[in-house]
Amino acid sequence: MVGEFVVIGLGIFGRMVATSLARAGQSVLAIDLNEDEVNRMAADLDAVVRADATDEVALRELRLERMSCAVVAIGAESMEASILTTALLRQIGVPRIVARSLSDLHARVLHAVGAHEVVSPEVEMGQRLAYRLSHPNVLDRVDLGDNTELAELEVPAQFVDKTLVEIDVRRRFDLTVVAIHRNGKIIANPRRDEALSAGEVLVVIGSSDAVARFAAKV
After folding, report:
1. What domains appear along the chain, each with residue ranges and CATH number?
2. Burial class (CB in 10 A: 0-12, 13-18, 19+), 93
3. Across the chain, where does the E strand assignment appear?
4. pTM of the model
5. Residue 164, C-beta contacts closer than 8 angstroms, at least 6 positions apart
6. What's the pLDDT tens digit per position in 146-168?
């Protein structure tokens, strides 16, 4: 589904959000006060505008209330600007506002002035790195909340040439195998008689503790 997004702030985080949305086929308007940043992104996005996002008149002229979502990606250089921009977007009537926070206090203020969602990329990346370092056998994971996660783990050596029914992951580890990465392809909802091979990756869902127990077998 194609949406219309506005990304405000073209630092590293903002540029990544804007270009990733564009590559996914979304319509993106980017706004930054820095002319060099605007010129840098002009060829990659549908529209890039040099404007002060804390100027209510400038924001209203851009008709941002028509957008599906606004991402306030203003960085550490101006916490005040990110708060004021978020408040103005809410007043204008943007239906969804996602704002980048730099601290817990900043996040609380952003919520208070109108952000529908607050993200902390530095905190999230730090947590992901710490998890990867402490659980080296987990190739990737997604925290689903309520102590549940989706994780990718390489098939343990002792499970090679055995079927899913033989290793009985659900009973032994309280995990559900939802997919297998095999030869560059994904086998979703694999059959219980599916035999595993070395180098394949299991996608499992279950509690964080269950994933950790299974990872210890890898």
Report:
1. 4-122 (3.40.50.720), 131-215 (3.30.70.1450)
2. exposed
3. 4-8, 27-32, 47-50, 69-72, 97-100, 117-119, 138-145, 148-154, 176-182, 185-188, 201-207
4. 0.72
5. 177, 190, 191, 192, 193, 194, 196
6. 889 899 988 888 889 999 999 88
